[in-house]
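Morning F.,

Quick status update on the modeling queue. The single chain you submitted on Monday has been processed. Sequence for confirmation:
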Amino acid sequence: MRCQSVPFLVIGIGLVAGGCAGVQGVTSNDTGGIIPWTPETQQIAYSIASERCARYDKYARITSVYARPGDYIGFSCVWSPHARP
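Structure tokens below.
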């Protein structure tokens, strides 16, 4: 019986420890968000931001790119594709 609970304990510890790692992945809401920077995400950042903003019937605008590991690509969601920043 004890051997059956060990895998669940290991998975539980992994989930708790993973929550301590900080922001993982895209964080956004109806006003904009951030995308963790990697060379791969920099190439598709506009597509990621557009998909997130489309949930609120808005358009994406990339506002900042800090091209260093550990930094982010910032974006805002605007009502019109022609709106000024």
